[in-house]
Design goal:
By secondary structure, the protein is of the alpha/beta class. Helix content is 35%, strand content 14%. Helix 2 crosses helix 3 (98-118).
Amino acid sequence: MNAGVRREEAGFRNVPKRSVVTGATGFAGRRLVEMLIERGAEKVVAFDVAPPASDAVDDPRITYVQGDITKPDDVLAACRDVDCCFHLAALVGPYYTARAFEEVNYRGTIHVLDACKKNKIPKLVMSSSPSTRFPFPDPSVRGLGENELEELNGPGKYSSVLQSAVV
């Protein structure tokens, strides 16, 4: 960013004042929580099934809430008194059962939508996962590592999926 460019001109005008971030202890969720605070948010609820890392940002504007996306009451409580919900919670990779993917990635999203409706949250931002596309291309990929998946799918196919997920 140029030193002469004002923050407002760089796209920082509409940072929600009060937000909840699901999946807040994951790679993207953790950084999103930090960025919201850096850009002027007054309150961020960091919601995740895992506790915050020992080196998580310690800021009075952040409330860490440990809860389960598959439990509607946990999601409803985390989504109280916010203006925006950033939904990033998901199981990723081919490492879980089909039932676990359904409970977290599908039903968990339904719980987030319901909580947004019940709490009258006007904005919802959802980030999906390439895991919505698994099994890829074969249902027998569960438990395989990156090298084994590349062997199964051919050179470069699996790594391109990984690269697009990271970008």
